[in-house]
Amino acid sequence: MDAKTISVLEYPKILARLAGFCDFSASMELARALEPTTSFDLAIARLAETSEARRLLSIQDIGIGGAHDIRPAADLAARSGVLDPQQLLDIKATLISCRELKKSLERKTDEYPRLAQIALGLPNPHGIVDAISRILSERGEVMDSASEKLARLRREVRVARDRLMSRLQRYLSESASKLQEQIITQRDGRYVIPLRAEFKGQIKAVIHDQSSSGATLFVEPLPVVELNNTVRELELQERDEERRILAELSAQVGEHHEEIKYGVENLAMLDLAFAKAKYAEELRASEPILHDMSKVKGQKSEFQPSTFDFRLTRARHPLLDPATVVPIDFNPRPGTRSVVITGPNTGGKTVSLKTVGLLVLMAQSGLHIPAESGSELPLFHSVWADIGDEQSIEQSLSTFSGHITNIIRILKKADHRSLVILDELGAGTDPQEGAALARAILNHLLERGITSLIATHYPELKAFAHSTEGVVNASLEFDIATLRPTYKLTIGLPGRSNALLIAQRLGLDPEIVSVAKSEINPDDIRADKLLDDIRKERNRTSREREKLEKSRARLEAQTKELEARIEKIEDERREVLAKARAEGELEVAVMRKNIESLKQQMRKARQPLDAIKSVEEKVEKIEEKAETPVARKTSNAKPLTSSESLKLGEKVFVGSLNAEGVVTALGEADAEVQIGSVRLRAKLSDLSRRSGEPVAPSKVESQRSADPRPSTSDLRKSPGLELDLRGQMADDAIDKLERYLEQAYLTGLPWVRIIHGKGTGKLRQAVRDMLRGHAYVASFEEGGDKEGGAGVTVAKLKAG
After folding, report:
1. Dist. CA 447–CA 609, nearest whole Å
2. Backbone dihedral angles phi then psi of residue 596, each to the nearest 5 degrees
3. Cβ of 267: how many Cβ atoms within 10 Å?
4. SS3 content of the chain, % helix, strand, coil (to 5)
């Protein structure tokens, strides 16, 4: 893409805002260097990454955590350099972030395939995280546990230092009058005491320093020199041991420096995807539909214009305040190669040009655009723009010369796959010559099949656009009543200057305005009046369409709400009946058990079993009814096939909605039905008459309501959907789980959550071994992130 065009369209400001959403320096560099691509496949992939990241962030708070750009540290380690503790802690934090992010995305490959593919390139810890945790504390201190030698040296240092401090404390107490202060301090790594200068020589000591005034000497008494030497030697050995440990740790990092650097680059790509998603949310943006210009139907040769889709709905300039910016609809008819925008100064022509240009660059960079969903853009191979004042004092160029120089450069490099944006084409010179030149340049662009957006004041270009195929007029409206622009873009109508109306409203003498009108061609005045009438009618139609859209949206919302309510009621009905069936099955099981017990007792008493057979038959009948599946309730009405038998005001049943309504209008194949406050069209095949007969209550429910015995909820309570086995021995836990599964199965629970914790994994393995092949268990899986992860197993029970 042309660097000057990118700067003119303020694209770097977009990238600066994008970088502000990145979490570390490597992704910020990627954001600032992001360029629009000319590859259709790459642009589609970038947009898909952004969409996946938006979906993921909408349901999960995910990010790169405390990651850092550790590539310089990895390079240093690869060159046998020794990393300092802070660099190692940064490496640890980054590897942990990579590990967690990779683990999270690997489980969601089907939902987020592109993000998961990037996550495959994240580095594995290779034991580096554990090694750093074992050696360094969170404050970056090498711990005693780093090596046995270090622990021994530190013990010896403490002992030697205690001896030295004890000896120096004795000097402080014995020579208090000769000291400036009773403190022990350090100079050049040696422990010293502050001696007053006038007592120099009275204490045999080595002088290491003196105060700026010379009143205090910092001396090391000769009797403690050997103790100081011992402490110093041990401290140096401690330092060398710490450096050796850090060198070994750095060498471990250096062995995997290539993988670490590659992983950081992939981590930066993921962070950039998250940043693009966050930026899209801030802009309330949507994913555009891109069209590949190189594969457009109807393109016969390299220089022949092609037909493509270019549709932006309620597009907003991304750098303007979303609360105040006026959105534009840019929707030229198919086959349009050039749009000529006219309108008053400060009316928004330049902003409209920049909006379209910026959105093209954003889409080809993989950014969602601030426009409504469904907006479409072609993928251009280059974008060229001449916007703003090109006047240059240093090069002795006027405004006109600066523009022409830039346009010459653009015309040399643009082709049929380019987008050319020209602001105030032909301005800055004689109006007649400027208009002729503007028309010639526009005609040249059309002959070469170059897509162009042009802003101008010349009326000649309006007429040219009206009479030339592939060119369409557009205008920005102006409110005469308030003398302010509305910034609304209208495709298909040229703009008006409104100079005479504005002058009259501002108070110019009416005679002067009248004379000015007389100088204008009457045909032009009639054309302006006709344009004004067309614009008013168009605005009225647009307002009516908006009202209809709002009514349709409200009706759809009411219909969805009604469907949801009906669905909820039906689900509740099925749930109640399913629960009743489960209770009935349990009652039958209890009755069968009692019958078997009674049989055994009668056999022992040598009594005939004929008396029990009738009871068993009744139990079997009850069991058959209890096993009948609960189906969705349907109407017993007969479907209608024609509207001849229907009457206005007649009650009908709408099968797809499972609701009753009243017929308000009839058609050949459908009818309008009012359900509550909602009116909708329904096919005749979906309508049926009610038989008028009330639905008889089920026998099972009648028996249950008349049965004086306690319900099964009294005989066996639900064990709940969750069982906590943490802290129990494996054998005890398995026994408890067996009883729990049996009770859950008999009460008809669909699934259960078994909490066993993570720990050593022995209890988890025992639980899953028991669930595998269990008679009541259909399947089981590890709990989700929000359910406890590896510490929880979710088991789906078989249907009763």
Report:
1. 104
2. -60, -40
3. 29
4. 50, 15, 35
Q: In whole angstroms, give the CA distance from residue 426 to residue 410.
A: 15
Mean pLDDT value across residues 307-324: 83
Q: Which of 229, 192, 225, 227 is nearest to 211 (CA)?
A: 192
Q: Which two tokens stand for residue 664?
A: 């308000």
Are the beta carbons of 385 and 9 closer than 8 angstroms?
Answer: yes
3-state secondary structure of 589: helix
pLDDT tens, 136-161? 998 999 999 899 999 999 999 999 99
The DSSP bridge pattern shows strands 289-292 and 376-379 to be parallel
Reading the block at residue 81, the tokens are 């350099």
Residue 709 has pLDDT above 70, yes or no: no
Q: 């309504």: which residue's tokens?
A: 661
- SS3 state at 203: strand
What separation in angstroms does the CA of 109 have from each of 102, 106, 274, 793? 11, 6, 17, 21
- The whole-angstrom separation of Cα 57 and Cα 55 is 6
565 sits in the region (left: phi over 0; alpha: psi -120 to 50; else beta) called alpha
Q: Is 510 exposed, middle or buried (0-12, 13-18, 19+ CB in 10 A)?
A: exposed
How far are the Cα atoms of 159, 639, 652, 671, 694 from residue 691, in angstroms, in the given order? 101, 11, 10, 20, 9
Q: Report the DSSP pairing between strands 659-666 and 651-654.
A: antiparallel
Q: In whole angstroms, give the CA distance from residue 604 to residue 58.
A: 70
Kindly provide the residue ranges of all beta strands, DSSP E only, lying in 61-213, ordered along the sequence.
185-187, 190-196, 205-210
Confidence of residue 18 (pLDDT cuts 50, 70, 90): very high
Residue type, 775: A
- Tallying the residues shown for the chain, one arrives at 800
Residue matched to tokens 């003498």: 509
**How far is it, in rounded angstroms, from Cα 290 to Cα 287?**
9
Angle subtended at Cα 323 by Cα 320 and Cα 326, rounded to the nearest 5 degrees = 65
Contacts with 745 (C-beta within 8 Å, 6 or more apart), sequence order: 776, 797, 798, 800
Beta-bridged to residue 774, according to DSSP, are none
Alpha helix locations (H) across 397-495?
399-413, 431-447, 459-467
Angle between helices 128-135 and 85-106 (to 10 degrees): 140
- Determine contact, residues 137/258, Cβ cutoff 8 Å: no
Distance separating alpha carbons of residues 435 and 462, to the nearest angstrom: 11
pLDDT tens sequence across 40-76: 999 999 999 999 999 999 888 888 888 899 999 999 9
Q: Is the dihedral of CA 678, 679, 681, 683 positive or negative?
A: positive
Among the ranges given (192-206, 307-321, 621-635, 746-760), the one the predictor scored with the smallest mean pLDDT: 621-635
Look-up of token digits 């709905």: 313
Phi-psi category of 492—alpha, beta or left, where left has phi over 0 and alpha has psi -120 to 50? left
Tokens of 20: 């502000």
Sign of the four-CA dihedral 319, 322, 326, 327: positive
Strands 451-455 and 338-342: parallel
Rg of the chain (C-alpha set): 42
- Map tokens 């002058």 to a residue: 503
| Positive or negative: CA dihedral 42, 48, 52, 58 | positive
The strand pairing partners of 451, in sequence order, are 419
Instruction: Say how far apart CA 184 and CA 168 lie, in whole Å.
Output: 7
Q: Please state, as a whole number, how many other Cβ atoms lie within 10 Å of the Cβ of residue 564.
A: 10
CA dist., res. 232 & res. 239, Å (int)? 10
| pLDDT on residue 575 | 78
Contact 479, 487 (CB under 8 A): no
Type and span of the H or E element at 751: strand 751-755
Side-chain-side CA neighbours of 317 within 13 Å: the count stands at 20
